[in-house]
Specification:
The chain has one domain: Ribonucleotide Reductase, subunit A. It has 333 residues and is mostly helical. A hairpin with a 2-residue loop joins strand 1 and strand 2. Helix 4 packs antiparallel against helix 7, helix 6 packs antiparallel against helix 7 and helix 8 packs parallel to helix 11. Strands 1-2 form a two-stranded antiparallel ribbon. Helix content is 71%, strand content 1%.
Length: 333
């Protein structure tokens, strides 16, 4: 029977791995300044200071780009909850505490830069943005929030946390990068590419801590991996009207089921060699279950493509009707 490790024992056992990962992160990360990615010359006062309040006509971003960028920002805004989660699970003892504080500082920089860009360029409604920020932060966040596993609330362990954030950081990196491309603005593209580079280093940190966990306690790590994949949701799901916005983002090609499977789930599983390793006992059983989850995700991708095509066809027909109606109105005597 495999040994059952406590989180406290795992924290101690993984400490050398964390210390190496922290040192590597400091050697690879590049400091940057949010103000360097904001076109301040485009800024002007809003109504409270004698200027003009926001109007959607002022936005240069498409609906897809604007929705994705605001969703990314609101996700970053929930940083107090994320900090609390990892501080509680990792502790603040060095080197875990060093990482918690550094990661928090870097993530905070992302929110600062995104908000400055959007408000200065008038690419979002700043009043609505603040209303949504207040609501999102008030809702808080927990990886297991509102999720049920075998009738119980999704209880968190150290492995639940590091495995979840591995996938989440990679998904966030890809979402930011694809949003930058969708913006059709070189400044926004550069900003989101810079943020994506940070998120990639964060992902590598968590991915390598998780990899060590699979070697130390394979059954516990595989149990957490199965739970995370079976119940995965992006942290932005607490943002109001998340489902509607997620559809816009998915149909727009920023982040959809195919991207999630091909660019997030499978690369991580391959890096950890989850489906190829010679597991035994319960770990082997979870390996089989994870294979089934991958197959289910593939089916989800296929269903989404069909639904996406139907939606695009409907939108095209509606656009044709609007154009015909406009043409008729303009030609009427």
């Amino acid at each position: 029977m495999a040994r059952e490790w406590t989180d406290l024992e795992l924290l101690h056992e993984l400490e050398p791995v964390v210390e190496n990962a922290v040192n590597r992160h400091f050697s690879m990360t590049k400091d940057w300044n949010p103000h360097d990615y904001v076109p301040w010359s485009e800024g002007k006062n809003y109504y409270a200071l004698g200027g003009q309040d926001w109007d959607i006509e002022q936005s240069k971003l498409s609906e897809v780009a604007r929705t994705a960028m605001v969703q990314n920002l609101l996700t970053e805004d929930n940083l107090p909850s994320y900090h609390r989660e990892i501080a509680m699970n990792f502790t603040m003892d060095a080197p875990w505490g060093t990482w918690v504080n550094r990661w928090t500082a870097e993530e905070n920089r992302h929110g600062i830069a995104l908000r400055d860009y959007l408000v200065v360029t008038r690419n979002c409604d700043p009043i609505e943005l603040e209303t949504l920020r207040m609501e999102t932060v008030n809702r808080g966040f927990s990886p297991g929030q509102n999720q049920q596993v075998s009738g119980d609330l999704f209880a968190k362990s150290l492995f639940d946390s590091v495995v979840y954030v591995t996938f989440q950081e990679l998904a966030t990196r890809i979402s930011h990068r694809n949003t930058g491309r969708a913006c059709n603005d070189p400044v926004a593209d550069q900003l989101l590419a810079r943020i994506s580079a940070d998120e990639n280093l964060h992902m590598i940190f968590y991915r390598d801590i998780s990899a060590a966990g699979f070697d130390i306690a394979p059954e516990q790590a595989m149990y957490s991996l199965h739970r995370v994949l079976a119940n995965f949701q992006m942290p932005g799901y607490v943002v109001p009207e998340f489902r509607r916005k997620a559809v816009i983002i998915a149909v727009g090609g920023v982040y959809d089921p195919r991207i999630h499977l091909d660019d997030v789930v499978m690369p991580v599983l391959k890096k950890w060699r989850i489906l190829e390793r010679d597991f035994t006992g319960e770990a082997a059983r979870y390996q089989d279950e994870i294979g089934k989850i991958v197959a289910e995700l593939e089916q989800t991708c296929e269903k989404f493509e069909v639904a996406k095509q139907r939606r695009l066809e409907r939108e095209a027909k509606m656009a044709e009707k609007r154009a015909a109606k406009k043409e008729f109105a303009s030609s009427a005597p």
